[in-house]
Amino acid sequence: MAIEKLFVKEGIKESEVEEYLKKKFERAGYSHTEIQRTPLGTRIIVYVNRPGLVIGRGGRRINEITEEIKNKFNFDNPLLDVKEVLEPLLDSNIVARRIAASIEKGTHYKKVANYYLEKIMEAGAVGVHIEIAGKIGGVERSREQKFGRGFVAHSGNYAEQLVDVGYTQALIKAGIIGIKVKIMKSMPKEVTIIGV
Questions:
Q1: Do 180 and 92 lie in a common domain?
Q2: What HEC string does 62-130 produce?
Q3: 156 φ, ψ (degrees, to nearest 5)
Q4: Which pLDDT value is given to residue 141?
Q5: Kindly report the CA angle at 87 between 81 and 92, in degrees rounded to 5?
Q6: What pTM was computed for the model?
């Protein structure tokens, strides 16, 4: 039973680190975090759109955050590594956050969703699916609106391996709006499209 508890404890710790870094690097276009255990310590790879905001002048900011992570989450010898997301429009977490920011500023949700559908497809995606749910469009009751272009696998092996899924929330006067973005970057090798 002890090993199961250890795995659960580590999983909770990793999700807390992810949430902490998400808040810390929101302005830098935060995407996601990978945590790897190595013989030298714990390697934390942070994927962001603008790495300069994370690193800081002369690496000062990254050193401060590494120290904060070490003290707050009790990691022994954490190594913080920052990687740039080269194509932010093909990263579902970054797109979801941008949609949320636009909705929070007051832009109509349909206009925002259709704009990002176009931009993501132009960036080279095979398909995109956006779901926006909550008190949208000035209605009293919550509802869900779905937008889509191209082909996106929703279940099975292709959905797990080829589809990038991102979630976030937008806070407006009416309440919380949930945003889910699915981006399929490439077609399965077994599938060929005829007559396009």
A1: yes
A2: HHHHHHHHHHHHCCCCEEEEEEECCCHHHCHHHHHHHHHHHHHCCCCHHHHHHHHHHHHHHCCCCEEEE
A3: 85, -170
A4: 82
A5: 85
A6: 0.80
Q: Give the list of residues 6+ apart from residue 134 with CB closer than 8 angstroms, or none.
A: 142, 170, 174, 175, 176, 177, 178
Domain boundary among 84, 104, 136: 84
Examine the fold and report which residue of 84, 118, 137 is the final residue of a domain before the chain moves on.
Answer: 84
Residue 97 and residue 80 in one domain? no
The single-letter DSSP state of residue 28 is G
Q: How many CB atoms lie within 10 A of CB 119?
A: 15
* Percentage of residues in the chain having pLDDT higher than 70: 95
The pLDDT confidence band at residue 196, using thresholds 50, 70 and 90, is: low
What does residue 191 show for φ and ψ, rounded to 5 degrees?
-100, 130
3-state secondary structure of 52: helix
pLDDT digits (tens, 9 = 90+) for 41-88: 888 888 888 888 878 777 788 888 888 888 888 877 888 888 888 888
**Beta-strand pair 143-150/127-134:** antiparallel
